[in-house]
Write a structure and sequence with these properties.
The complex is a heterodimer of chains A (322) and B (254). Chain A is an alpha/beta fold. In chain A, the strands form 2 sheets. Chain A has a 9-stranded mixed β-sheet, with helices on both faces. A 5-stranded parallel β-sheet of chain A has the order 12-11-13-14-15. In chain A, helix 6 runs parallel beside helix 9. In chain B, the strands form 2 sheets. In chain B, strands 9-8-7-10-6-1-4-5-11 form a 9-stranded mixed β-sheet, sandwiched between helices. Chain B has a two-stranded antiparallel ribbon with strand order 2-3. Classes of the chains: A alpha/beta (322), B alpha/beta (254). Chains A and B meet through helix 4, strand 5, strand 6, strand 7 and strand 10 of A and helix 4, strand 7, strand 9, strand 12 and strand 13 of B. Strand 7 of chain A pairs antiparallel with strand 12 of chain B.
């Protein structure tokens, strides 16, 4: 069975999530050929893709690929699908991978399973996919042809192929229609934010409604500053208008991956926990020793954040001799 | 302008997900329900657009009879009327969901004229299939943009913003169009008591489409195993501060 992997990131670059998708694709190919598609260049990726088991790299060339246009990437994918006839089309389960495969699904009428953590080469195809941002899994059967699926980031290890080898490069110019180009990035507005970005911070200090008020975040900001980290919050806090949505950690907020996440007065709703699964360590500060967050925490302090957080800041200053 | 918002009724899951005995659904006997978060922002945006430009905002759901509660919630936020595609309580796969929504949009547009915008949440909070809005857009031959945290109408165009590494990507779509929006697009208002009372009198038009066989067929749900962690309690109250600092130093962030 042949499989096609769509590499839909920055032209000329391959992200780790695409290599993870490629690892699952190889399993689904079950020894059959693995094709890859890149748009707007990608010859330079041939060696890397070959090491990960790709035998043919299809490079779609068109002036439209200068900026991202989801329907144009999908149209190029559909052309390769028509030519190669893969049983399965795979992409990374990030925003763009999901968007492009949903366009392919709409163009072809094929079913699409987003954010799979496992799949087996069979028809119908058994897949396991994430729900609720990873708080729940769904086992499903994917019918139809071709089968479209994306791979949940960081669920499958990116492994090079034992028999990786030479890659045939096939360049082509997809026949894009006006509608394929109607929606494309026409402008990039640079971010104006200063400070540490929540998604990339090494330390995140968050609080929930227990902060009591917008002013209650002063002690959270103080501790985050001392640690060179970023301030986060729960969904309840942004819905109350206390903090901007950009501070929200959660399924519908920012996904964080700090060295340590300090969650103050946060109970641990699934919505919140879906955003902090990537934290290497979790310290929960909570008055309730039975709060659900303690089941996911590495360290806990049982107490009121209004007393505990300033005490930690004071102790940090003392330790630094200040 | 006429704006349609599609919403989904989802449970408020709290701290721990418990499944029904047959593992086909979340046990919801003790849970409340809400509009999926991205879509709540869609409702707010539709209401604001109609408040500033005039016209009509309509909310649509495919869901069990109880989903009328979420349609009333959306009308309390300011939507003018509702369309309820009443399901049998079973889950519909994304293709079937899109098909039923397309039929409903065509029927409403035949009677009341075209929608300038159809808004979806980028993905539902529960199933997270990332595709219903895009399928609907293709069936209606309309342009579609997703992952949006900013939208503004500029004459016959809609300017859309999407968060990207190092900034925001801008798209400009001709109307009519379909959009997938994210929480953070706006801060939904808190409905007033009079608005909730008005919502009780607004019309809900119901129909019961037939569910086709699923192409993405759910077999069962599984609660992932916990990380098996037992938190190390560093202490009670402010006296725990030295132990916390020791941990921070050990991790190398203090």
């Amino acid at each position: 069975m042949s499989v096609l992997v769509v590499v839909a990131g920055t032209p000329g670059e391959i992200e780790d999530v695409s290599l993870q998708a490629l690892s699952l694709a190889r399993r689904l190919a079950a020894g059959g050929p693995v094709h890859a598609l890149t748009v707007g260049g990608g010859d330079g990726l041939a060696d890397t893709l070959g090491e990960h088991g790709v035998s043919t790299l299809h490079v779609a060339e068109h002036e439209a690929f200068g900026t991202y246009a989801p329907a144009a990437v999908a149209r190029a994918t559909v052309e390769v699908v028509r030519e190669v006839g893969p049983a399965t089309v795979v992409a990374a389960g990030n925003e763009r991978g999901n968007e492009v495969l949903a366009h392919v699904a709409a163009m072809t009428g094929a079913p699409f399973a987003a954010n799979c953590v496992a799949a087996e080469p069979d028809d119908p195809m058994p897949v396991t996919r994430v729900r609720w941002g990873g708080s729940l899994l769904e086992e499903a059967r994917l019918h139809g042809s071709p089968k479209l699926l994306t791979v949940q980031p960081h669920a499958v290890e990116a492994q090079s192929a034992p028999a990786g080898g030479a890659v045939a490069i096939e360049k082509f110019t997809p026949d894009l229609n006006e509608a394929d180009l109607a929606v494309r990035v026409v402008e990039r507005v640079a971010a104006t934010t200063g400070g540490v970005s929540l998604a990339e911070a090494r330390v995140v200090v968050s609080a929930g409604r227990g902060a009591g008020s917008p002013e209650g975040f002063a002690i959270i900001e103080e501790l985050a500053d001392l640690l060179g980290g970023a301030v986060g919050c729960s969904r309840a806090v942004t819905m109350a208008g206390w903090r901007p949505h950009t501070d929200q950690v959660g399924q519908t907020g920012t996904k964080i991956a700090p060295e340590i996440y300090i969650a103050c007065g946060i109970s641990g709703a699934t919505q919140h926990m879906a955003g902090c699964k990537g934290a290497k360590a979790l310290l929960a500060i909570n008055t309730d020793a039975d709060a659900p967050i303690l089941a996911s925490a590495d360290y806990a302090v049982i107490g009121d954040l209004h007393e505990v957080v300033p005490a930690i800041s004071a102790e940090l200053r003392k330790a630094r001799g200040g | 302008m006429r704006v349609l918002v599609c919403v989904k009724r989802v449970p408020l899951t709290g701290g721990k997900i418990v499944l029904t005995q047959d593992a086909q659904a979340i046990e919801t006997r003790h849970l409340g329900f809400t509009i999926s978060p991205h879509e709540e922002c869609g409702v707010e945006e539709a209401v604001r657009m109609v408040e500033s430009a005039g016209g009509e905002s309509v909310v649509l759901t495919l869901g069990p009879p109880e989903a009328a509660e979420q349609l009333r919630d959306a009308m309390a936020l300011g939507a003018d009327r509702a369309i309820h595609l009443v399901s049998d309580g079973e889950e519909w796969d994304p293709q079937a969901t899109a098909g039923a929504i397309v039929d409903a949009i065509r029927a409403d547009e035949t009677a009341n004229g075209p929608f300038d915008l159809v808004l979806f949440g980028n993905e539902s909070a529960d199933a997270g299939n990332y595709q219903v809005g895009i399928r609907v857009a293709y069936a209606l031959s309309r342009p579609v943009a997703t992952g949006l945290k900013g939208v503004s109408v500029e004459r016959a165009m809609i300017r859309c913003e999407q968060e990207a590494a190092g900034g925001r990507d801008v798209y400009k779509l001709p109307l009519p169009a379909v959009l997938g929006v994210l929480e953070g697009l706006n801060l939904p208002r808190y409905p007033s008591v009079p608005a909730k009372l008005r919502a009780q009198r607004k019309p809900i038009e119901s129909s019961s489409p037939t569910r086709p066989d699923p192409e993405l067929e759910k077999v069962r749900l599984v609660v992932p195993e916990g990380q098996g962690k037992e938190a190390l309690v560093l202490g009670q109250g402010p006296e725990a501060a030295p132990a916390v600092v020791a941990i921070l130093q050990q991790i190398g962030v203090a």
